[in-house]
Request: fold
Amino acid sequence: MVTLNSTEVLNTVVPETGHGNHSEDSPFLSSADAVKKTDFYDRNLALFEEELDIRPKVSSLLSRLVNYTNITQGAREHEEAENTETLRRKAPKSPNMGTLMGVYLPCLQNIFGVILFLRLTWIVGTAGIVQSFLIVLMCCSCTMLTAISMSAIATNGVVPAGGAYFMISRSLGAEFGGAVGICFYLGTTFAAAMYILGAIEIFLKYLVPQAAIFHASDHHGGDSAILNNMRVYGTICLSLMAVVVFVGVKYVNKLASLFLACVIISIVSIYAGAIKSVFQPPDFSICMLGNRTLVRDQFDVCSKTVLEGNVTVPSQLWRNFCSSGNMSSPQCDDYFNQNNVTEIQGIPGLASGIIRDNMWGDYREKGQILEKAGLPSVDVHGAVESIGLYVSADIATSFTLLVGIFFPSATGIMAGSNRSGDLKDAQKSIPIGTILAITTTTLHFRCCVHVLSCRFGDAVSKNLVVGTLSWPSPWVIVIGSFFSTVGAGLQSLTGAPRLLQAIAKDNIIPFLRVFGHGKANGEPTWALLLTGLIAELGILIASLDMVAPILSMFFLMCYLFVNLACAVQTLLRTPNWRPRFKYYHWALSFLGMSMCLALMFISSWYYAIVAMCIAGMIYKYIEYQGAEKEWGDGIRGLSLSAARYSLLRLELGPPHTKNWRPQVLVLLKLDEDLHVKYPRLLTFVSQLKAGKGLTIVGSVIQGQFLDSYGETQASEQAVKNMMEIERVKGFCQVVVASKVREGIAHLIQSCGLGGMKHNTVVMGWPYGWRQSEDPRAWKTFINTVRCTTAAHLALMVPKNVSFYPSNHERFTDGTIDVWWIVHDGGMLMLLPFLLKQHKVWRKCKMRIFTVAQMDDNSIQMKKDLATFLYQLRIEAEVEVVEMHDSDISAYTYERTLMMEQRSQMLRQMRLSSAEREREVHNYTSTNIHRITPVRPNIFVDHSEGHIELVSQTQMSSPPVADKIQMTWTKERYEAERRNRNNAPENFRELMSLKPDQSNVRRMHTAVKLNEVIVNKSHDARLVLLNMPGPPRNTDGDENYMEFLEVLTEGLERVLLVRGGGREVITIYS
Reply:
């Protein structure tokens, strides 16, 4: 007994056995760096030392987890950071942003934007306080529910660059992630266009009106001139912003604080002005003619006449409405003549009862004049030329339109999750900061609904309405809103290219791959270029009110899928779903999803359909391209749950005949190089199945599993590649067995799961079985036939499968002939129908032949068969072939005799060979030398008493140390010589052999049927034929193969079909 101390044991080198000792992927440790060499010598882990390279110590794992650092926004994708090369790089700056600066204020900056300053007063004045409350409630409730779902997802793990795209793609899969990611990208890009248009509107209307390039020649051309100015200046502004982003994002980030300060100062000034207006309303007058509101910049004094010295002269307003300046004989507009000019306060203050007056909405069509109820007016028609002097609606308004315009002001809730890599504690900051920001903005919007209720800025001398309310000066709001919109536009132009780059780097949409590249520092140059081009499309629209609903659709689509992702993960209860944010529920997520969908159709049903079509096309494109991404998404879990439920339902009983379809197990043979030997077998299956039902492709490798694991993996990959080439959708299973027939039996018994098991086996024909001395090929074939029969499975054997058409061929004519000789469940009727669903066989006609014997009424058989096919709803030509009883021909007798002689001769050869190999084995088993069994065939007489037996291999090869030799006694040699002398007698026995009568009858049937089939179907595209069963006595297996060969001689494409013992087709509905 040998004893080793502990040191010697631990220092003993254990060789690799290769039995499944393959490396496993680890999210934090690599086999190269993670495990130090000294780890193997831990005294307390000797039992695990051989697996420490793939199963590291807990201490190693924890130390790496402590050192794990989040990746900052826009740097690299999360998965790339886990690579060894990335980990070796310089560690990024540790995140140190808190809830206030990292989440709360960025969300405020994104939510308080152009809509607040430019459109909120118009929305409140048009919709009224009640409906404005409803609009704010709907939009903010939607974003609040989405924020709850987003907080749950964001606190379930690290959210790197990509924000909402990353959350949705990792929760719902690459298809949903790619579709929603593109929608989110388009929404962010159009948001940049909207912010730029808002900045240009502030610039041209309130800051520098003199900078307008195009001017209206009359009041009809005013709109086109404004739009053209917006397009020119918008394009210039977009180009400048793109250059700033291209030069360096650091400049945008440095200016972000300044822009945020502008937003906060502007909001504070609004509240200060609202509080002041309670005690001292601002002097802000509006000029009215009757009850109609006048455009204030068209005149200087709100009066028909003015006093100059002691003389009353016509005012500028008079000259606008009257063609003659003479007051004695005026030619004025009728409405101007009969109505008085009055002046009212535009902001009477909160204590004036203005809230009651503006409680209900006042929607107008485009061009309709703004009228104030309660003022006296004589209702007469004025001149058409005077329309431009009144304040009129420049766009048709409705509740749904206002919802679409307002919703962008509620977006921006993703700003915190996008910066998760910069946060000190993202799990805590994202929910608190986001929900607090939404609560703050919702309260602010509700207060603004009370405070702001002016309908049109034209009535206040082109001043920004919200600016007139601010304190201490209107310029605070004007300048603050301008810088706020510019900053928001820069943020959108910065974020959108990075989002596109994240999608491109995931490589789920191949044609976007080029946008994953950029400058050396990782800046997305190509993505910025595409973003600029798409934003230019929004600039060319030139209308803020038209662009806002577009981006609303894309953001609502994104929010919808965030809610869906949270609901799916919650309902599936996946083990990895452990968010730190606990205040979520699947019902809230479904409610948020429903609200998003409702808001999409409320805002604009046609934009909603377009957005859904875009997302749907991207989804199907990614699905068609086959996104090979495994992100542990919820859709995979949903599919697993649905599959489990369906499998349990299928277990309740076998499928009804109406639902029966071939669920195929394809038995493939691989060559020595692990290539599929007959790929057309898969082609035929793909044409038969057309992607429907279950397809399992199986193969058997001969050997031991522990020694053949690598070969099994390679074989499985080769089969999967061929399945992909032939477009066979299904599963692959490769088994290792000591004998091929045992492996096939295992596949037939164990493939499938529950109710999803195969009911049909497809296998190839054993070509060359006559020429081969090895009977294992055809014996395996017959054994498989018997196994399928015992398992009550259908069997299909395509013969001459190399002549079968490929998926690219088209048969424009021809027939599929069915020879229905015996009934075995209706498989022969169903298979041609299924094949004709494929484009290769679609133009082929179907013909059905059946055989009538002497005592059958062939005319009645034909009528009955035609009726049966009519009830089956199968169109086919029917023909009954009469086979009269005839004497057995000499050809049949001779063919049978040759078959039996060949079988007897091969049997004797195999017996003799087996006896010799058995003698060699018996001797070598007692020999201490290792020898290779070979069949001896040369006898050399060396001495008087001994005979040396030498293999042919030894004679032809150079001498080696382990020479294979054995000696026989003289008696054994004489016995062998007598056997050789008896060879002529064995030959004479073969010549005098008489064939068995049962074999003669079977041969006769095969010959006669073959004659009839070749005569009728020699030019058919495919012949389907009942496959006779193998004999009960295994001694006649070789004769069975000969019968099948005779039956199918002279036919190019034959499909031998054997039913599984149950009906597969029915006449009932």
Residues 75-80+93-279+398-628 form a domain with the Amino acid/polyamine transporter I fold (CATH 1.20.1740.10). The mean pLDDT is 76.
